C-alpha cells in the first residue's frame, strides 16, 4: 500500500513539474480566443515565395460584401506586390492586417537571431507604411518554430497566433465539400481558424460561404483577433 502511495506521489510530482515547465518557461502559441462564448476568429494567410501571388478576389469580395470580421496575416513579398489593394482593405473596420514575416522562410528556427528580428521588424515597417498602423500579432510561416524563435518574436512585443486546427485548404485534393464539412464539424467555441487568401487555398472561395453560413446557423459569430486576445 505504501509503495502504491509513493508511486502515485512521484507521478504527481512529475506531472506538476511538466506543467510548470510548459507554462512558465515556454512562451505561448495562441490558438484560441480568450473567451468561452460561441465566437470564432476567421484568419487568412497571404504569402509569396517563388511565384507571384495575388489576393483571391472571390474570397475578398465575399468578406467585404458581407462585412465579415477577418484577420489577414501578410508576408513582405506579398505586401509589396499587392500594396494598393492592401491599403484599400486595411481601411475597412472589419478587417485586421497582421505580420507573417518578410520573406516567408519556411523554417525560421534555422535562422540566426539577427535575421529572425529582421524578418519581423522589417515586415512590420513595410506593413505600417502601407496600412498606417502597427501590427501586434505574428504567425510563423508554415507554423514552424522552436523556443528560440518564439522567445525572440515575443521579445519584440508580438503575440504569436497560429490556429486551433489546420483546415487543409492548400491541398488541391481537398474538395470544397470536404473542406466545408471538415471545418464545420471540427470548429469549437473560441477557435482560431486558418485559410489562405493568396490563391493557395484552392477551393476556399467555394467552401467559405457555406462554412460561414453553417457556423452562423450553429450560433457562432466571427471576431477579429484583437478583440479577444489580451
Give the fraction of residues assigned to helices. 40-55%
Radius of gyration from the alpha-carbon trace, in angstroms = 19 Å
Q: Structural class, from secondary structure content?
A: alpha/beta
- Strand fraction band? 5-15%
Shape: globular
Number of strands: 8
Describe the largest sheet.
Answer: 5 strands, parallel
Ranges where pLDDT stays below 50 over 5 or more residues in a row are 14-25
Query: So, CATH architecture?
Result: Alpha-Beta Barrel
CATH topology: TIM Barrel
User: What is the overall number of helices?
Assistant: 9
CATH superfamily: Glycoside hydrolase/deacetylase
The ordered H/E elements are HEEHEHHEHEHEHEHEH
How far apart, in Å, are the first and last alpha carbons? 47 Å
Mean pLDDT: 91
CATH class: Alpha Beta
Q: Count up the domains.
A: 1
Please provide a written account of the structure.
The chain is an alpha/beta fold and about 230 residues long. Helices cover about 45% and strands about 15% of the residues. The chain has helices at about 1-25, 55-65, 75-80, 85-90, 115-130, 145-155, 175-185, 205-215, 225-230; strands at about 30, 40-45, 70-75, 95-100, 135-140, 160, 190-195, 220-225. The strands form two sheets. Strands 2, 3, 4, 7 and 8 form a five-stranded parallel sheet that branches. Strands 1-6-5 form a three-stranded parallel sheet. The longest helix is centred in the N-terminal third of the chain and has 24 residues, at about 1-25. It starts with a helix and ends with a helix.
